[in-house]
């Protein structure tokens, strides 16, 4: 097995060639494809018999050249080739079971740093690590959204041994503020209290308590003996509650994704004058009428067909984003459970249960009994 590699031996024509070949037959050396030409004689054998052939050649004083017969073959039936092929297959399989890097790609370096710090402090993972030790996408997303309320979603992509976290910030919303303090802050929905952000007033409920619609959460009136002192109530009270939503969407949808930003030079008279851009470079007055340098944000449109394999990666994020846009500012969705999904007639319909964390505080004017 070790020396069965085929070889071709070429010998210059000489009167001793025939005795040489007869001597090889006498020593039971197998010869294949023996060809006699005007200038040379060639035949095939294996590496196993090469030492014996060389001893006979020296006796007849012939000039001999040796070539491998399988140099043009891609696969050779040799032990080292088989071992190399086994390693070539095994190494990628073994490496795919290991997470080598966890990267964060955010809109700003500051957000990447904050999210990276939260990820390492929460999960305390050191790379490289086994795939089994990495928490599920749902757990990672829930923990990050709980601690970064400015985010609406965290996309998690896995490419071989690399995990990429792409946070998506919530759309900026303006809130109307008033300097007038309310008498009380009451609950607009039922839920379990998670945390407070109170500037004025006295809490009437604790964290992890269940509040019901209409309950007083923060009182702006303090009692001192028989007197009541108005201090006003102002702040936010966040609570978790479950929100069930039904959906019905086509299985074939058009998705637009943002591509990498790029700078573009526009020359008047050659390029279109009206171009959507993110920002524009200031140029000298003598150059600006003729040339513009703008940063464009390109989008890519593609057709996607929804199926069961795209529930986690596409359907749930679409529903998450749609529901989040319908909720008040600073609301986050901690978790989502797909209750049911049914495909038919070119559509998919079903129900999703969202765990929502929302500011349920509503200020009211006028003194009320508690």
Automatic annotation (TrEMBL):
Keywords for the protein's UniProt record, in alphabetical order: Membrane, Transmembrane, Transmembrane helix
Transmembrane segments: 79-100
Native source organism of the sequence: Lysinibacillus capsici
InterPro entries for the chain: YqfD (IPR010690)
Top-rank taxon: Bacteria
Classification via Pfam families: YqfD
Keyword Transmembrane among record annotations: yes
Record protein name field: Sporulation protein YqfD
Claim: Transmembrane helix is one of the keywords in the record: yes
């Amino acid at each position: 097995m070790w020396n069965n590699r085929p070889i071709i031996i070429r010998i210059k024509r000489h009167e001793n060639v025939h005795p040489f070949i007869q001597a090889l037959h006498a020593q039971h050396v197998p010869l294949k494809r023996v060809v006699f030409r005007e200038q040379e004689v060639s035949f095939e054998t294996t590496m196993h018999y090469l030492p014996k052939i060389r001893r006979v050649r020296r006796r007849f004083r012939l000039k001999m050249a040796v070539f491998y017969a399988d140099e043009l073959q891609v696969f050779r039936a040799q032990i080292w080739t088989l071992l190399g092929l086994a390693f070539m297959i095994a190494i990628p399989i073994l490496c795919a079971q290991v997470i080598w890097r966890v990267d964060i790609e955010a809109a700003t370096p500051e957000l990447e740093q904050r999210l990276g710090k939260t990820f390492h402090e929460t999960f305390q993972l050191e790379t490289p690590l086994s795939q089994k030790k990495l928490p599920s996408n749902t757990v990672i997303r829930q923990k990050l959204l709980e601690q970064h309320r400015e985010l609406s979603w965290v996309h998690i992509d896995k490419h071989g041994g690399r995990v990429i976290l792409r946070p998506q910030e919530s759309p900026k919303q303006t809130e109307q503020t008033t300097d007038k303090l309310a008498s009380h802050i009451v609950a607009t929905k039922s839920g379990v209290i998670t945390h407070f952000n109170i500037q004025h007033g006295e809490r009437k409920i604790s964290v992890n308590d269940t509040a019901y619609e209409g309950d007083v959460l923060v009182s702006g009136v303090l009692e001192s003996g028989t007197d009541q002192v108005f201090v006003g109530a102002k702040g936010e009270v966040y609570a978790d509650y479950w929100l069930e939503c039904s959906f019905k969407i086509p299985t074939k949808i058009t998705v637009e994704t943002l591509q990498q930003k790029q700078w573009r030079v526009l020359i008047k008279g050659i390029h279109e004058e009206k171009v959507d851009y993110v920002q524009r470079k200031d140029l000298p007055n003598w150059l600006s009428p003729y040339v513009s340098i703008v940063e464009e944000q390109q989008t890519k449109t593609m057709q996607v067909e929804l199926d069961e394999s795209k529930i986690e990666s596409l359907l749930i994020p679409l529903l998450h984003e749609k529901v989040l846009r319908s909720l008040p500012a600073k609301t986050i969705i901690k978790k989502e459970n797909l209750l049911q999904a049914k495909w038919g007639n070119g559509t998919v319909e079903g129900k999703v249960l969202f765990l929502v964390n929302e500011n349920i505080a509503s200020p009211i004017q006028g003194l009320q009994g508690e």
